[in-house]
Amino acid sequence: MLERPLAVLKFGSSVLQREDAIPVAVHEVYRHLRLGYRVVAVVSALGKTTDRLLSLARGLGDAPPSSVPLASLLATGEAASAALLAIALDRSGIPAALIEAARLRLRTWGHHLDAEPCELDRGELLRA
């Protein structure tokens, strides 16, 4: 049996401007599933969430925040978006697995705040 192709869909903050835009992502995932794809949906934080989190961090003092804790704070925006999308998919009858980067052994290259993915555990991704 041939393996179904994999589609990676990226939903940035320009698409997910507010919570009420999540059904757009659900529809796009469903459209690709109907076409026979397995889907990996990658999301950004909703709308201005990243800007709000940056503002909170900057409000704690004059010195720029350290990149690792700041990256961890900003990742909470993506985590919330991913959870909301998974909930919306589930409520629409579309099975969804919420997978964290650590589970995939995702490795990146570059600065913590502007890194590029370079490696992941493909087997774990396909199992999920």
Brief overview, please?
By secondary structure, this protein is an alpha+beta fold.
How does this structure look, described?
- The protein is 42% helix and 15% strand.
- It has helices spanning 22-34, 49-58, 67-91, 122-127; strands at residues 6-11, 38-43, 107-109, 116-119.
- The model has no long low-confidence stretch (mean pLDDT 91).
- It is globular, with a radius of gyration of 16 Å.
- It is built from four helices and four strands; from the N terminus they run βαβααββα.
- The longest helix has 25 residues, at 67-91.
- The chain is α+β, with helices and mostly antiparallel strands.
- The strands form two sheets. The chain has a two-stranded parallel ribbon. A two-stranded antiparallel sheet has the order 3-4.
What is the helix/strand order? Answer: EHEHHEEH
Alpha-beta content class: alpha+beta
Shape descriptor reads: globular
Q: Quick check: average pLDDT?
A: 91
The proportion of residues in beta strands is 5-15%
* Main sheet overview: 2 strands, parallel
SS element count, helices: 4
Q: Can you count the beta strands?
A: 4
Helical percentage: 40-55%
| Low-pLDDT residue spans | none
Radius of gyration: 16 Å
Cα end-to-end separation:
19 Å
